[in-house]
Automatic annotation (TrEMBL):
The keyword Amino-acid biosynthesis does not apply. The lineage of its organism: Eukaryota, Metazoa, Chordata, Craniata, Vertebrata. Keywords: Hydrolase. Belongs to the amidase family. GO terms for molecular function: amidase activity; fatty acid amide hydrolase activity. Residues 5-211 form the Amidase domain. This is VDHAP protein. InterPro entries: Amidase_CS (IPR020556), Amidase_dom (IPR023631), AS_sf (IPR036928), Endocannabinoid_amidase (IPR052096). GO terms for biological process: fatty acid catabolic process. It comes from the Eukaryota. It comes from Stercorarius parasiticus (Parasitic jaeger).
Amino acid sequence: EALEVTREVNCVVDFIHGCEDQLQKLKKQKEKGLLYGIPVSIKDHINCKGHVSSGGMVKFLSQVMEEDSVIVQVLKSQGAIPFVKTNIPQTMINYDCSNLIFGQTLNPLDHQKSPGGSSGGEGALIAGGGSILGIGSDVAGSIRLPSSFCGLCGLKPTGNRISPSACSGRTFVLAVTGMLGPMARDVDSLALCMKALLCQEMFRLDPTVPPLPFDEEVRLRGNP
C-alpha cells in the first residue's frame, strides 16, 4: 500500500531493509511490546542504521548512518517495525514538501495541493493509507501543518520529552525546541505511541530525557 501511495504522490524516499527479518525475530520473543507488529514510517532525517538521512540536501547523500537513532531503537524495542523513510523539504525549514533529490510530494486528498511541511511525506503517506503510524518532527508546525493539510492527528510533545539523539545533524539556532512526535489518523493512536515511547528504554538510552512515563489518567481527564 505504501508503494501504491508513493507512486501517486511521491512520499517515500527509502525502504528500510531488514524490517521483515525484524518481524520474524519479534515473533519468537515472549515479550512483544506495546507496538508489536505495527509498521511505522519515519521522517527522512531520523537516523536508521545503514541508511542516509539527507535532510533534502545532496551533500549528505554519501553519509550512511552507523546506528539507529534513540527513537528508532525504542520503537523496535516496543515491537514496532520501521519500514520506510519519507520525504521532506530541503533543510526542513519549509511549509511545503519538495527538494532537488526526491522531488515534490503531493497531497493525496488533492494532487493540486501541498501536503504541508516539513513532515509532508509522513502526512501524505498516512493520509493515503500507506502507513498507520509515523514519526515526524516539529519546530514551528512541521507535524501540525501536514496533519492539518492531510486531515490527520499529530502531536508536538513538550520540549525534551522524547530524545532527539542521532537525528541528522543540521544545526539551527532556534528559540523554540524542535521535537520528534507521532502522526496518525486518530488521537488514541498518538496516545498509544507516546505511552510506548516514554518507557525505561528511552530513559536508559538518553539520560537527559526526564524519566516521566505517560500519564493515561491525565489524558482521559482532558477527554470526557
